[in-house]
Specification:
Layout lengths: L1 H5 L1 H72 L5 H12 L11 E4 L3 E4 L10 E10 L2 H9 L1 H13 L9 H16 L9 E9 L2
Antiparallel strand pairs: 1-3, 2-3, 3-4
Length: 208
Amino acid sequence: MSEEAKKPEPAAESGSSSDKSGKLGMILSILNLLLILGIGAVVFIQFQKDKHKESVGDIQAESADAGHGGGEHGGGEHGGGHGEEKPAEGGHGGGEHGGAPAAKKGDQVISLDQFTVNLSTSVGTPPRFARVVIALEVPNSDTAQEIIQKMAPVRNAIIDLFNSKRPSDLQTGEGRNFLKEEIRNALNSFLITGKVKGVFFSNFAVSS
């Protein structure tokens, strides 16, 4: 009887071990599940962040392209095209003939290419010449454009006047001012759109 009473005890210990193993397995399963869920959540959040960055980058790129295109269309083709036609003409007059750009409104100044012209000398004396840069003040862009178109007769009239001058005629300020007036009158005799208002010598030298 005593031996039979002792037999159930090992069974009780076996059941207790099974319960402990089952609880431990359940805890491990729950921990694994939580770990998997945590990793999944981290991956999902990172994916959403990357997607958001890409979307913002695309929007910024599209905005930059739209702004660039609008500037070219509005400013270059329609906004500034007609407004810059006249300055382009003034630049043509100044750039081609070596002068400062013309003013946008009112009087304009056109600088002509440098002149190197012979002066009048008596027989037997060494030749003398003048080197001068001349600027013409005109009332509007139409007259400036006419002078550019008639550059050949403009230069010819100026050269003829210098050829008629002796070196002594150009040694004084009074003599040079008189030549300026002669140049102005000579050019105004064939200009149609407007008259030359002023003649300036930006560089003037007579050989010795």
